[in-house]
Specification:
Layout: E1 2-6, H1 17-25, E2 29-32, H2 43-56, E3 62-66, H3 70-79, E4 86-90, E5 111-112, H4 130-139, E6 143-144, H5 145-148, E7 164-168, H6 173-181, H7 186-189, E8 194-198, H8 205-208, H9 210-222
C-alpha cells in the first residue's frame, strides 16, 4: 500500500525518515512529501503538490497528515474522494471550509518562523529532550505567509465517505471525541467511518515514537472498511 506522509508546519519530508524506514520493513511504500516552501508559495501550491502525489500512485493510497497538515490530507480527500482509501490524522484536525489554514503565529517578512518552544510547553513537547529541541529549531523551515493564511476550500461532500483514523498523541481518544461532539471539529462530525487510536507521545511522534507510529499507520493501511 502506498502511504503518503505530509508533515506539519516547519517540517519537510525528511521528518518521516525513521517512520518511512519502519513502514518499508512492514511491507508498505511510504511517500514522504516535501511541499513548496518558497516565500511566494501558496496553500493552493501545496494542495497541488499533494494531489500530484496522489495521482502518481498506482492504487488508492492512504494519506497521512500531521498537525496542521491534517487539513492538507483532508483537502486531498475532498479533491480525490474516489482515489484515496483512507485519511490518517496525526495530532490534529482538519480546518473547515472558509477558515485560514494555519494562521497560528505572527508573520515576519512574509513568513511564519518557528516561534520557539514556549507555545508548546507541556504535553506537546514533554518527550523531546534538549538535543532534539535544538535540532528541531535549527532545521525548522519558515512557513510561507500565503500558506499559513490561505483559505481552506472544501467542495465535495463525498469526502465524508472516505474513512478517517485519528491518531491521538498528546491528547486522548476520549478528548478527541469530546471536541468533535461539542462541535469544535465539524468536518469530522460528518465522517461516516471514523476511528480513534491512542499513541503515548508528544506532538511529534515521528521523532520520538517512529516505530510505534509506523505500526499504527501500517495497521490503518490494511484495515480498510
Amino acid at each position: 500500500m502506498d502511504v503518503l506522509l505530509i508533515a506539519g508546519l516547519w517540517l519537510d519530508g525528511s521528518a518521516w525518515d525513521d517512520v518511512a524506514s519502519a513502514l518499508r520493513s512492514l511491507g508498505h511504500r511510504p511517500v514522504p512529501l516535501t511541499l513548496p516552501r518558497s516565500a511566494s508559495a501558496t496553500l493552493d501550491d501545496q494542495v497541488a503538490a499533494v494531489l500530484t502525489a496522489v495521482d502518481a500512485t498506482s492504487g488508492k493510497p492512504v494519506v497521512v497528515g500531521h498537525s496542521a497538515a491534517c487539513t492538507l490530507a483532508w483537502l486531498a480527500a475532498d479533491a480525490r474522494p474516489d482515489k484515496i482509501s483512507k485519511v490518517v490524522l496525526v495530532g490534529g484536525f482538519p480546518a473547515s471550509d472558509g477558515k485560514p489554514y494555519a494562521d497560528f503565529f505572527e508573520l515576519r517578512d512574509g513568513v511564519m518562523p518557528f516561534p520557539g518552544w514556549e507555545p508548546f510547553e507541556g504535553l506537546d513537547s514533554a518527550d523531546l529532550d534538549e538535543e532534539a529541541r535544538r535540532a528541531f529549531a535549527a532545521a525548522a523551515i519558515p512557513v510561507p505567509g500565503g500558506v499559513a493564511t490561505g483559505v481552506v476550500r472544501l467542495t465535495d461532500e463525498r469526502r465524508f465517505d472516505v474513512p478517517v483514523v485519528v491518531i491521538c498523541p498528546e491528547f486522548t481518544p476520549a478528548q478527541a471525541e469530546e471536541w468533535i461532539n461539542a462541535g469544535d471539529v465539524p468536518e469530522l462530525a460528518r465522517v461516516k467511518h471514523l476511528e480513534f487510536v491512542d499513541l503515548d507521545s508528544g506532538h511529534w511522534p515521528m521523532h520520538t515514537k517512529p516505530a510505534e507510529l509506523a505500526r499504527l499507520l501500517a495497521s490503518a493501511a490494511v484495515d480498510l472498511p
